[in-house]
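Good morning,

Attaching, inline, the backbone tokens for the sequence recovery test we're adding to the shared suite. The designed sequence is right after.
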């Protein structure tokens, strides 16, 4: 923690120099999950040639290392500096900011800056849903980091009870919703995503029906190095029927965003680690 604090004080220009060096190592010298990255890209874009896929792969590693140093920098970056670097394109919706909402993001770089900047700029308290990490020191670091500007951590298994208890509070319940539901008791929603059968947390649909909150997609994209733009779009409004799946709208929006900027998604995450048969066994 002490070392991370010291490194976070370095100028971003220096940190990006470190990121360039790390990107070269991870891409060429000590490949980091390269087989997984290539397999995921090839299956997501079977109609693209090898030249295109290799270009995306190279850009991905650069973005991954930028994400690493930017996350460290987030430990000391000022509100003013971060607000210059993350711009929000707000929805044309008169009710936005006046009622509680559910905000669904994905592992598109840089989702950490997205949440921190949202706490500063969106005018609503933000709660981030998280699954505690096994390594306690890393878990403490990430919770402290995400709480810097007022974000409030809520454990995934406490979201429903919190939503009921504080139903009338104006706030953003923020979820990075493209994670693999790997716990034995996780209810899964299976659908096609990037050309493959993919599991999502069915609990998101249950949360939406429980709260009857409107749902917004938070789509972030890199404008240039160190600068991002987040488009917030409403993808569902109450009342919700018992059989309605808000996840379908989220999945379509996320897939569209990934196809527009494939180098910005976390391809090194083992998103398809289990098939439907093995996961539901």
């Amino acid at each position: 923690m002490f070392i991370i604090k010291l490194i976070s004080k370095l100028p971003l220009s220096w940190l990006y120099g470190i990121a360039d060096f790390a990107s070269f190592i991870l891409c060429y010298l000590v490949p980091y999950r390269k087989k997984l990255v290539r397999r995921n890209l090839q299956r997501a874009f079977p109609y693209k040639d090898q030249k295109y896929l290799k270009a995306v792969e190279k850009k991905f590693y650069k973005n991954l290392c930028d994400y690493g140093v930017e996350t460290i920098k987030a430990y000391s970056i000022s509100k003013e500096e971060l607000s210059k670097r993350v711009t929000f394109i707000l929805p044309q919706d008169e009710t936005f900011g006046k009622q509680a909402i559910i905000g669904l993001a994905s592992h598109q770089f840089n989702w950490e800056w997205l949440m921190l900047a949202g706490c500063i700029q969106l005018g609503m308290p933000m709660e981030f849903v998280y699954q505690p990490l096994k390594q306690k020191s890393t878990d403490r670091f990430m919770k402290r980091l995400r709480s810097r500007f007022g974000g409030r951590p809520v454990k995934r298994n406490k979201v429903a009870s919190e939503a009921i208890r504080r139903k009338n509070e104006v706030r953003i319940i923020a979820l990075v919703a493209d994670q693999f539901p790997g716990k034995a008791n996780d209810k899964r929603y299976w659908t096609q995503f990037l050309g493959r059968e993919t599991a999502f947390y069915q609990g998101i649909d249950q949360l939406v029906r429980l709260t009857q909150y409107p749902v917004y997609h938070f789509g972030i994209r890199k404008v240039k190095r160190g600068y991002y733009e987040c488009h917030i779009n409403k993808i569902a409004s109450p009342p919700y029927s018992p059989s309605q799946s808000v996840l379908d709208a989220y999945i379509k929006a996320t897939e569209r965003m990934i196809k527009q900027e494939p180098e910005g998604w976390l391809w090194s995450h083992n998103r398809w680690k289990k098939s439907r048969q093995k996961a539901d066994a």
